[in-house]
Amino acid sequence: MSEKKLLILNKQQIQQKLDRMAYQILEDNFDEEEILIAGILPRGNHIAERLKTILDGIAPFQSRLLTIELEKQSSSLSANIDFEVEECSNKVVILVDDVLNSGKTLAYGFGVFLDVPLKKLRTAVLVDRNHKSFPITTDFAGVALSTVIKEHVDVVLDEEDGEEDAVYLR
């Protein structure tokens, strides 16, 4: 017996949301020379790559992609990063993930930058589920969903899953 899935966003809608988010990031950072886009592996990094590609086409500033891998099951912050955190000093960082559920992943992502004086730290997610256990808000969200806690949001990206882009609720 197959599980029921409700399509929330199709490929075209995901692209529209990412385009809108990129323009919001541009408006928020118009006077900057460079911004850093930090994607949380795995799917947050794919979203970050797509945002960077859009921004490279529309923004006067440079954008650089950073990658963060978090040990999400750990009770303390454990992260692998592909950059020196000091490089972020006095810069704008956009922390990107696919889905904001409890806020734990983004809270751990914030932890990477705690010892560095940033100009600005913003968050961007494709789906905000509104089930926060941590005091985390999104600055740029593709779509906000009010779901029940037992429901699950699946973000399918062709880079990761080999299937056409979609967001499902199951």
From TrEMBL:
Gene3D superfamilies attached to this UniProt entry: 3.40.50.2020
Keywords: Glycosyltransferase, Transferase
InterPro entries according to UniProt: PRTase-like, PRTase_dom, PyrR_bifunctional
Domain of life: Bacteria
A Pfam family that the UniProt record links to this protein: Pribosyltran
Stretches of the chain forming a coiled coil according to its record: none
Record domain Phosphoribosyltransferase: where: 8-159
Presence of keyword ATP-binding: no
Gene Ontology molecular-function annotations: glycosyltransferase activity
Protein name as catalogued: Phosphoribosyltransferase family protein
Source organism (scientific name): Mucilaginibacter angelicae
